[in-house]
Design brief:
The complex is a heterodimer. By secondary structure, chain A is α+β, with helices and mostly antiparallel strands. Chain A folds into 2 domains: about 240 residues, P-loop containing nucleotide triphosphate hydrolases (Rossmann fold); about 130 residues, no CATH class. Chain A has 9 helices and 24 strands. Chain A has a 6-stranded mixed β-sheet with strand order 6-7-8-3-9-10, with helices on both faces. In chain A, strands 13-12-11-16-22-23 form a 6-stranded antiparallel β-sheet. In chain A, strands 17-21-18-19-20 form a 5-stranded antiparallel β-sheet, with no helix packed on it. In chain A, β19 and β20 form a beta hairpin. The longest helix of chain A has 18 residues. Chain B is flat. Classes of the chains: A alpha+beta, B mainly alpha. At the A-B interface, β6 of A face α8 and α9 of B. The structure holds adenosine-5'-triphosphate and magnesium ion.
Chain lengths: ~375, ~300
């Protein structure tokens, strides 16, 4: 089922008397989730992901805006009438019930013409359990299961009602790194096989990138960018998105534009035309004025955008070389760079770690320009 | 015994000594007293050993009256006070406005002196030459003739005693239960809501099991407390409880020791052992039922 959010806003009343403003947890969020897709809702802690999810689920009523499931406006519909399944961050499995009874619980609530026979219920429970491979654990209590198994029970409980929409709130945050990898693959597999429209909340960008068909990046309740994971990575809309996606994180330099060249700390690193494409219609808000003599900008370079090169323009203090098998990671420092600089290059490139400095040439497609004040992406020339 | 165990016993020694001296030894002593027939307090002598004291107590009409009173008190007050406390705590935990105020009001009886509350109850219920009391005033509005709750018929006195006991024990139960309810993770309720669980089913299938350890604790301590009731009856009906026909088992024991008819430690000990046996049996039964229904 397609989900459409329009101008969705949630304000929480502020209890702190010193600050009179309400907390705006979600701020005019508008996007569409195509039918049968898995989208990742991504953002730092407190950015309003859970609140958005709760509004889609019906546990919170929006202050403003509308939610559509297909053609139906569900904004004021109670959660049980929306046909959603939800997996909570801590799973919320009923500790006193066995796995079987936990999965059965939603079915026992059905009333009237939806009421199922005992056999039908058992069939559905077994089917849901088989989907997440829980058959052997049906008579255990949640406390007797591992984190990953509990998580599968939670998914089975959400799926047993055959919902149109599956909502997952940071379902992997309680698992260890290896189990997290394994379980996210399983979620993807289950989503593919059931073809349920799924919203997956996470603050882990790698997790979101790896399993989502689309990602929605949020910050302070505002949607920053929506797109396929690779597109968002390759073409971030602003500095926040660029910094948020990618490990190791993007390297941020304060730089200047001088005479049509990008300048970092006095060194001209790239011609402006290599990074920006000319804009057809004059759009001063997104483009940059070439005629202006000098302008401060933020230059962000992905770790894989560096090419070690003896006559490269960017000179950094070499701090170390970390070999990671397939790749090597160069750790360096540069006066104009906010943090330690990290470059990823293939292992066949030889780097002499005894040197004090290292010079890099840059791959233009891995270099992004942002407005110095607003952090907005500068995409083209005017 | 290996070194490890020796150490463990060594650590336990202070509390074992303490418990032994002040709990086990007196209990044992009471048992001995209860077996000594014809014990003379002054000369500290006795005729023989046997079960005569028990037989005397069990045939004493005052004891039988006390036994009956105590059982009625237990059977009425424990379920009602626990149930009411649960209802009130559910109400308290679902409101936001003025919650603290209500919580304080409900807790007030707990910090008020038993005898002071007893006095208030006397004023409310007692019929004197000058006034019929507040409760009778209210009753008269409904066309009922005045009843003397303090010196009148048995059922009226029992009603006041039960009312009073419930009133006194409820605050503590409310306190415990509001705490237990607040500690239930709200995510369970959210999950139940998403699944369309009705309010009643949520209560029976989720809330009750979650707070069952606390409920169990309250029921057990409630039983024990009600079996040991005494001061409540004194506060309402004065010290001569036998005359009022409102004595309790503990009251009977006290009277046998120090009351007007007192000076019979052997009878008192036998009654005390009987009370001990009753409480032990009831608690064991509770535990057995509890095993099936408590979810820790
Ligand atoms: N019931 C509430 N009352 C007041 N403020 C709230 C309430 N719930 C959430 N908020 C605020 O709304 C904002 C968004 O919260 P939300 O739970 O959606 O964050 P999140 O993105 O899920 O974060 P996390 O990754 O830590 O779970 C936060 O600033 C939070 O403090
Ligand atoms: Mg959250």
């Amino acid at each position: 089922m397609e989900i459409r959010l329009q101008n969705l806003t949630k304000k929480f009343p502020n209890r702190n008397k010193k600050i009179s403003n309400d907390v705006i947890a979600v701020d005019h969020v508008t996007f569409t989730i195509p039918d049968g897709k898995l989208i990742g809702l991504l953002g730092p802690s407190g950015c309003g992901k859970s609140t958005t999810l709760n509004m889609i689920c019906g546990l919170e009523t929006p202050t403003d805006g509308t939610i559509f499931f297909g053609e139906q406006d569900v904004t004021n519909l109670a959660p049980e009438h929306r046909g959603v399944g939800m997996v909570f961050q801590n799973y919320a499995l009923y500790p006193h019930l066995t796995v079987r009874k936990n999965i059965l619980f939603p079915l026992e609530n059905l009333k009237g013409k939806n009421k199922l026979s005992k056999d039908e219920m058992m069939r559905r429970v077994n089917q849901a359990a088989a989907l997440v491979q829980l058959e052997e654990l049906m008579d255990r209590k949640p406390a007797e299961l591992s984190g990953g198994q509990q998580q599968r029970v939670a998914i089975a409980r959400a799926l047993v009602k055959m919902p149109h929409v599956l909502l997952l709130d940071e379902p992997l945050s309680n698992l260890d790194a290896r189990l997290r990898l394994q379980t996210r693959e399983e979620i993807k597999k289950i989503q593919r096989s059931t073809n349920i429209t799924t919203v997956f909340v996470t603050h882990d960008q790698e997790e979101a990138m790896s399993i989502s068909d689309f990602i929605v990046v949020m910050k302070s309740g505002v949607v920053q960018q929506i797109g396929k994971p690779q597109e968002v990575y390759d073409d971030p809309a602003n500095l926040f998105v660029a910094k948020f996606l990618g490990t190791p994180p993007i390297n941020v330099f304060s730089g200047k534009i001088e005479n049509g060249m990008l300048v970092i700390d006095g060194a001209s690193v790239l011609p402006l035309e290599a990074v920006l494409k000319p804009l057809n219609q004059p759009d001063t808000s997104k483009g940059i004025d070439k005629s202006k003599a000098e302008q401060r900008v933020v230059i962000a370079i992905r770790p894989e955008g560096f090419v070690p090169c003896n006559d490269g323009p960017l000179c950094c203090d070499l701090q170390g070389v970390e070999v990671m098998g397939r790749d090597i990671s160069i750790v360096a420092q540069h006066a104009a760079c906010e943090a330690v600089l990290r470059a990823i290059i293939t292992a066949d490139t030889k780097v002499d770690s005894a040197n004090d400095t290292i010079r890099f040439a840059l791959k233009p497609e891995k270099v992004f320009l942002f407005d110095y004040e607003t952090g907005e992406r500068i995409r083209g020339l005017v | 015994m290996n070194r490890h165990q020796t150490k463990a016993w060594l650590y336990l020694l202070p509390s074992i000594l303490f418990l032994g001296l002040f709990m086990v030894y007196p209990l044992f002593d009471v048992l001995v007293y209860s077996m000594e027939e014809g014990y003379n307090f002054a000369s500290q002598t006795y005729f023989g050993v046997g079960l005569y004291n028990y037989s005397y107590v069990l045939h004493d009409p005052y004891f039988l009256q006390a036994l009956k009173n105590t059982f009625i008190l237990v059977i009425i007050t424990v379920p009602i006070s626990t149930g009411l406390a649960l209802l009130i705590s559910l109400g308290l935990s679902s409101i936001k406005f003025l919650k603290d105020l209500y919580q304080t009001i409900y807790f007030l009886p707990y910090v008020t002196n038993t005898l002071a509350v007893g006095l208030v109850f006397m004023i409310l219920f007692q019929k004197t030459e000058y006034t019929d009391g507040l409760v009778n005033l209210v009753l008269s509005w409904f066309g009922s003739s005045p009843v003397d709750f303090i010196n009148g018929p048995y059922w009226a006195k029992m009603f006041v005693l039960c009312f009073y006991t419930i009133w006194v024990v409820m605050p503590f139960k409310i306190l415990i239960l509001t705490g237990a309810l607040a500690s239930v993770n709200p995510d369970y309720y959210k999950a139940a809501k998403v699944d369309g669980t009705s309010a009643f089913r949520t209560f029976v299938r989720i809330t009750l099991p979650m707070i069952s350890p606390m409920m169990f604790y309250l029921i057990i301590t409630g039983f024990i407390g009600a079996f040991k009731a005494y001061s409540d009856a004194v506060a309402l009906f004065g010290t001569d409880l036998n005359a009022a026909g409102m004595n309790t088992i503990v009251g009977y024991i006290y009277d046998m020791l120090y009351g007007n008819s007192g000076g019979f430690p052997s009878y008192a000990s036998a009654a005390a052992i009987l009370l001990f046996a009753i409480i032990l049996t009831i608690t064991c039964m509770n535990m057995m039922v509890g095993k099936k229904h408590i979810h820790y």
